[in-house]
Write a structure and sequence with these properties.
- It is a single chain.
- This protein is an alpha+beta fold and about 400 residues long.
- Strand 2 and strand 3 form a beta hairpin.
- It is elongated and about 100 Å long.
- The protein starts with a helix and ends with a helix.
- The protein is built from 13 helices and ten strands.
- Helix 2 runs antiparallel to helix 9 and helix 2 packs antiparallel against helix 12.
- Strands 2-3-8-5-7-6 form a six-stranded mixed barrel.
Length: about 400
């Protein structure tokens, strides 16, 4: 009997192709919207998370504004920070912007950063060619540099920049390496950056103060405890002055930022999915409307089947199967369109496509639930139809 119900449901859908297509259109739009929106948010999230991990999810960044008597950290403070438990490396940063010249070409407003070997050893996928700045460069205050991809192409187009000289503020630096080009979706691009040893930068800028420090943890799971220890040591460095408003220094925990970002994007995915699911509800209403019309049109058929002994449950089963088929077909087609839309959008934005099994199951499962919920009323109406009333129209 169940097989007969399936055959009759399928035959009715096939015999009314245009009406069936228009009925499932709302489901197609709803499922496609859910798949496309959630997939895009997931792809963007994965891209940003991977960039944060590349920068160092185990990293804590300290930004120092200082006081009038002490405008920044000094080398002894850096040494004290490196002794904190769970810290396996400290990387000071000194930054400025100026013009650079090389190969008879001048590039304006270029970022110059002073860093040490710890930064390079704790940052993955950073170097493209050549070598990084090492501990010898730091100790000897060497005039060497590592350049970003835009600098390498702008000053030495068609040539290898390794071993070439560039001039910064009248001093010639030898290029020893180049950095990987940052992606179009990157929020921390090094493409127009020149990195020199931080000790060299302090000598050139004639300063002993450091305004930014990256600290790398051995175990990021205890980042909160480590952050508290860093805060205590920095307060000692500034004679325990009040820093409740972060006016002297601020501490940024990348692990906390990552967790907060993932929570926010998770909420955004649910919000967008909820908005897109409205289309599924509209599609469900369309299925209910079509099924109610179908019950009215097939009153004679229902009356004849009941007169021949068909049980109300069999009638209800047939109409409910039709609604489920329509919603399921709409879900499958919507899934295909949603993935296609997401693929095109991801290529345009420059992020990777990420379609999770949960998203697919959610979209298809929701569409089937819509079919059952909105198909139940017409099916029940058909099952309760009085055969004598139905046969009066014959």
């Amino acid at each position: 009997m169940f097989k007969e119900s399936i055959k009759m449901s399928w035959a009715n859908i096939i015999n009314n192709k245009m009406r069936s297509f228009l009925t499932i259109l709302g489901i197609v739009i709803g499922v496609a919207s859910i798949i496309a929106l959630i997939t895009l948010v997931s792809g963007a999230t994965n891209s940003i998370v991977s960039q944060v991990n590349a920068l160092g999810a185990n990293k804590i960044t300290v930004t120092v504004m200082g006081t009038p008597l002490k405008p920044g950290l000094i080398n002894s403070d850096i040494q004290n920070l490196s002794t904190i438990d769970n810290i396996n490396g400290v990387s000071p940063t000194i930054s400025s912007r100026t013009a650079v010249a090389g190969n008879n070409i001048v590039m304006q407003n270029i970022t110059i950063q002073g860093k040490n070997d710890v930064y390079f050893s704790n940052t993955s996928n950073l170097m493209a060619t050549g070598r990084a700045i090492n501990i010898i460069d730091i100790n000897q205050e060497s005039n060497v540099c590592v350049v970003g991809s835009d600098i390498a192409q702008g000053l030495f187009y068609g040539q290898s920049p390794i071993g070439q000289g560039i001039i910064i503020n009248g001093i010639t630096y030898t290029v020893v390496g180049t950095l990987q080009a940052s992606s179009g979706f990157s929020f921390n691009s090094n493409n127009d950056t020149v990195i020199i040893p931080y000790t060299t930068a302090m000598k050139v800028l004639n300063t002993k103060y450091i305004s930014s420090v990256d600290l790398y943890m051995t175990d990021s799971s205890i980042s909160d405890t480590t952050t508290q220890k860093i805060n205590s040591m920095l307060l000692q460095a500034f004679n325990n002055k009040d820093n409740s408003d972060n006016s002297i220094f601020s501490i940024t925990n990348m692990q906390d930022m990552l967790s907060t970002f993932q929570t926010m994007t998770g909420m955004m995915s649910l919000l967008l999915g909820g908005i897109a699911s409205i289309s599924l509800v509209v599609g469900g209403i369309g299925i209910m409307n079509m099924m109610l019309v179908s019950v009215t049109e097939r009153t004679t058929e229902i009356g004849l089947r009941k007169a021949l002994g068909a049980e109300p449950g069999a009638i209800k089963e047939q109409f409910l199967l039709e609604a489920i088929f329509l919603s399921l077909f709409g879900g499958v087609i919507g899934l295909g369109f949603g993935v296609l839309i997401a693929l095109v959008a991801c290529n345009l934005i420059g992020i990777s496509l990420s379609v999770s099994a949960f998203t697919v199951i959610l979209a298809i499962g929701f569409s089937m639930v819509v079919g059952v919920v909105f198909g139940l009323t017409p099916a029940s109406k058909a099952a309760k139809l009085n055969p004598i009333d139905a046969l009066r129209s014959v």
